[in-house]
Amino acid sequence: MTAIIPFISQIDKAEQINWIKQLNTLIPEANIVPASEISPYDKPLCHLAIVADPDPIEVSEFTGLIWVQSLWAGVERLMKAFRDESFGIVRLIDPQLSQTMAEAALAWSLYLHRDMPAYRQQQSKQQWQQLTYTSASERTIGVLGLGALGQISAVKLAEQGFNVLGWSQHQKIIKGITTYCDESGLTEMLAKCDIVICLLPLTRQTKHLLNTQRLAVLPKGASVINFARGGIINSDDLLKLLDSGHLNHAVLDVFEHEPLEQSSDFWQHNKITVLPHISAPTIPGTACKIVAQNINRYFESGTIPKTVNMKQGY
Ligand SMILES: NC(=O)c1ccc[n+]([C@@H]2O[C@H](COP(=O)([O-])OP(=O)(O)OC[C@H]3O[C@@H](n4cnc5c(N)ncnc54)[C@H](OP(=O)(O)O)[C@@H]3O)[C@@H](O)[C@H]2O)c1
């Protein structure tokens, strides 16, 4: 009998149909259908669901779930919503997504490294002024989080000639990268960074990790890039350090509330570059293949892919 897999999502309907169409061609043993089309009789019989920004109430109607496959790499919201559920959450780990994030890390590091925010402002004042050039090897970039996205980003930056440092929960050995862990390692690393890039998950431990105390450890004139989650940086503290002149610039792709409120001070701040959560969007073509591999393997052998660690928070 063909298994029914609910596609539970609040994303745009046309986008949902697109995902479902692609997934159905790659998963022959299942019939993936929008959750709303599944009868109350069939709902408890579903063991597996595919989710993309789902309504938690809709998920709770599927009482027989063993695991859910997310179409996104970041699953902070899912973990919060389903903290007490017994099913496992499998996030998207897509090498293409890691490459996309590494490209963003490189692009926005180069933007800061080559003083583009300053030249943009000079142009607005019709000011012709050459700033002193600093070579990549004289710049130190620290990457917070050395997981699926952070590790490849760090390596790409090192290949570009930057001096790259990285911080993670567990000590790591990565060729060409100086690595740190724990609180004293973070302080030691931050004190050396010209640019710090955040690629950590948002957890109880990382919430407002970058506060006044830790941002002040960065050398004067350092810049911050946040590609992870808005809640990892304390916004008020960041503004204070930018306004005091301690920090040079912040590139922010993620915010505590998205879309960023129209009233936010960030929009007009000349030391902040606002991006609309675009550093590493899920790419349906490659994501569908990864999701299909996970699900086809489950049908063949009963193997559930690695689920996020609810206790650890990522
Ligand atoms: N802006 C975007 O477009 C976008 C797209 C996708 C994802 N994201 C964000 O990027 C985040 C990272 O993704 P990922 O796939 O790289 O996650 P991941 O593979 O789970 O890696 C997380 C990394 O953070 C480290 N870490 C976690 N908690 C820590 C702590 N308390 N102290 C020190 N290090 C800690 C982990 O250390 P260990 O390796 O030692 O465990 C690991 O290296 C996601 O959670 C999501 O929020 C953003």
Topology at a glance:
Blueprint: E1 3-9, H1 13-26, E2 30-34, E3 48-52, H2 56-60, E4 67-70, H3 76-81, E5 88-90, H4 95-113, H5 116-124, E6 140-144, H6 150-159, E7 163-168, E8 178-181, H7 182-190, E9 195-198, H8 212-215, E10 222-226, H9 235-243, E11 247-252, E12 272-274, H10 284-301
Parallel strand pairs: 1-2, 1-3, 3-4, 4-5, 6-7, 6-9, 7-8, 9-10, 10-11, 11-12
Helix pairs in contact: 1-10, 4-6
Could you name the key traits of this structure?
alpha/beta, 18% strand, 314 residues, binds NADP nicotinamide-adenine-dinucleotide phosphate
User: Are there runs of 5+ residues with pLDDT below 50, and where?
Assistant: none
Binned strand content: 15-25%
- Overall pLDDT, averaged? 97
Helix percent reads 25-40%
How far is the N terminus from the C terminus?
35 Å
Strand order of the largest sheet: 8-7-6-9-10-11-12
DSSP strand count: 12
Our Rg estimate from Cα atoms comes to 22 Å
Question: Which ligands does the model contain, each kind named once?
Answer: NADP nicotinamide-adenine-dinucleotide phosphate
H/E element order: EHEEHEHEHHEHEEHEHEHEEH
Report the total helices.
10
Summarize the main sheet. Answer: 7 strands, parallel
The outline comes out as elongated
Helix vs. strand class: alpha/beta
**Quaternary arrangement of the chains shown?**
single chain
